[in-house]
Every structure is written in C-alpha cells, then in structure tokens.
Amino acid sequence: MKYRTKDETNIDFFAFSSALRASTCALNAVTNTSKFPPVKYRSRFWTLRSVKSPDDDVSMGGMKQYQGKLLTIKIKGTQTSTVIPTSLPAKQSFVSDFRNLTEDEVTGRFVIEVGPDLTLNRERFQSNTNFRFVANLNAVQEWYMINTAPFAHPIHIHVNNFQVISYNNYTGPIGATVMGNKVFFDQNKQQCDRQYENFPNSEQAMLPDYEYNQWLKYRGHAQRWRDMESHPNGNLGYSPSGIFQDVILVPPFSNITIRFQTDRFIGTVVIHCHILYHEDHGMMMVTKIVPAGAKTTGAHIKSGDAYPGQCSKCDPFPFNQVVGECSGSRRKHFNIIILVTGVLATFILFIVTE
Ligand SMILES: [Cu+2]
C-alpha cells in the first residue's frame, strides 16, 4: 500500500497489515515526517489507495489484496501554520528495548501456532478459563509466532504491546488438507507424529508434490524481511525490527520472535486472529497473567499430547527449550544404553551357550 497524492506523486510508503491499529499508523507518520513534502506543495485532495503488487503474494499468502481507493481527504478553509511534532512522546517506563537481552533476562516463553483450520495451537476456542499459558506480572516474555498454513493471519494480543524482534527461518510443521483431513508434515514431506488432538495417526496421508512445491514458495520470510529497506516491493505486512505493536501479520510458513513485559494488569489475556470471520470460527485462545512470584503451572499448553510448534515428538518446546521425556540428549543416552545392554546380553548369552 502506498500513500499517493491526487496527482499520484508517491510521497511515502507504508505497509499495512489488515488490522494494524491507527495508533501504529500515527506513530509511523510522526517518525516519517521528514519524508513528507513541505506544506506548500501539498494538494487540497489526498487519496489513499491500496496498490496491489504480485510480489506481495509471498508475504500475504492466499489473502485477498484490495486494489483501489480507500479514502479521500478534502482540505478546506484558510491555511494556518501547523506544527507537526518532530519527536514522539517519552516512552512509558515499561517500554524498553528488548532486542538485546540475555537468556537469563527472559522469564517466560510460549509459542503461538497458527493452524491451517482456523485454529490457534491446534484447537478452536473453548472457554475463557481454558488458559493456554500463564505468565507472571513484571516478567519479560519471549514468544514465537509460527504459521503452519498457506494463509497470512493478523494475530492480535491484548493488554501488553509487544516488540518485534526478528523473522526467522521456518523449520516448523507444514499444515495441509489431505482427503479432507488437516495433516501436519515436516519439511521433508514426512507426516509429523504430532498431529491434531483427534487426528488418527494410523491414517498415513501423502502430501502431493505439487502441493508441497506450492508451499515452498512461501518460505524465505527471514531474508525478505531483512531486505525490506532495499526492496520496497514484496514486503507487504512485514514489521520492522524493534517497533511495538499489538497486532502482527504472521505470513504463511513464517516464524516471528516477539518480546514484551507484562505490566500492571493481572487477569485473562485474549489472543485471536483479527480477521473477524476467523476469530468467530474459533481462532482465539486465552492466557493468564498472575502476580509476580505466583505459580505459573496448570496451563493447558498442549493439545492432545503435542506442544504447539511440534512436528516430531522430540522437537523442543519452545524452540530453544527441551521438555518432556524426549529431550535430545536423554534420548541419545537412552538409545546408547539400550544398544550397550543388547550387545552385553548377546555376549553373555553366547558365553553361556558355549
Ligand atoms: Cu486468521
């Protein structure tokens, strides 16, 4: 989407996801005032148009992109001098830069998985007490948003604005519809052993080549995001590093890291897709913030036996933490013990029978 004057002079470039709040737009406008032309050159008619670019298909996935006029601003009356602020108001105390934290400074980690069937973390919304994660107050959170589906979804987190840290290479599950079932595959077309709660794992589905190749084109968001400045087209919906938002477009087959601090509010926090049709069909879940020092146990993090983001039962959750009985090192040790025990048993059996 581009800002254009009536005579189609391109004066600035903003990328809007479908549900970015006006506050974010205003913030961008203030920070970009140096790019606007002097007042004397401004037209009395301003038109805001949505300009579609085929390059944006990668970040938007199957989402429809409107092309045409969004609004017209007509300026009337006599000209007065207007002072446009050149700087933003001072940040609130809890809004600090979280981009260069150490591991120890992050106290809570969680994964929001956008599914191929209007689900979040592999379930539709169940109730306002079905907490999928519990965080302490005044704790720095590092969350990962992944999209296993070929559509982009604007995900909105209530209460605390979050800082965009990075777009990362996508290594997670590929969610596809096969024979009417939603099935997760890994990056090598193998069916994941972590599926939907009620998915019959015995049913081996195949991911057709054409479908797999179709999904592959959506990967590479990390590089496209890094190249945003130098490539003005084809980056619709990406958010620059470091800005604070409460909604972020999660592109198809993408992996985004965000951080924020839980501030003042204790209670239920809603997370949902901001496409109302999706939200109304269950693409919503709740988390909870409890006082500092209170227990954060009891959350319903898993769906069935799977953590969000998992393909193999040995995949870590979140991405940099190992949980459950299937940690990589313990698994390897277990396998080595089995192997050594087997060799010894065979050797003893051989001695005895001799
Ligand atoms: Cu959605």
Largest sheet: 5 strands, mixed
Reading off the top of the CATH hierarchy, the class of the largest domain is best stated as Mainly Beta
The gyration radius over C-alpha positions equals 24 Å
The span between the termini is 82 Å
Beta fraction: 25-35%
Write down the secondary-structure element order.
Answer: EEHEHEEEEEEEEHHEEEEHEH
**Class per helix and strand makeup:** alpha+beta
CATH architectural group of the largest domain: Sandwich
**Number of discrete domains:** 2
What ions, cofactors and ligands are bound? Answer: copper (II) ion
Domain Plastocyanin-like: 121-289
Keywords: Membrane, Metal-binding, Transmembrane, Transmembrane helix
Enzyme class: oxidoreductase
EC number: 1.16.3.1
Describe what this molecule looks like in 3D:
With 354 residues, the protein is of the alpha+beta class. The protein has two domains: 2-74, no CATH class; 103-321, Immunoglobulin-like. Helix content is 17%, strand content 26%. The protein is built from six helices and 16 strands. The protein has helices at residues 22-31, 57-60, 209-216, 221-226, 276-280, 328-353; strands spanning 2-5, 10-13, 45-50, 68-74, 108-114, 131-136, 140-147, 153-157, 162-168, 174-178, 181-185, 244-245, 247-250, 255-261, 267-273, 284-290. The protein has a five-stranded mixed β-sheet with strand order 5-7-14-9-12. Strands 6-16-15-8-13 form a five-stranded mixed β-sheet. The longest helix is centred in the C-terminal third of the chain and has 26 residues, at 328-353. Mean pLDDT is 78; it is low at 1-41 and 329-335. The chain binds copper (II) ion. Residues 153, 273, 275, 278, 283 line the site of copper (II) ion (CU).
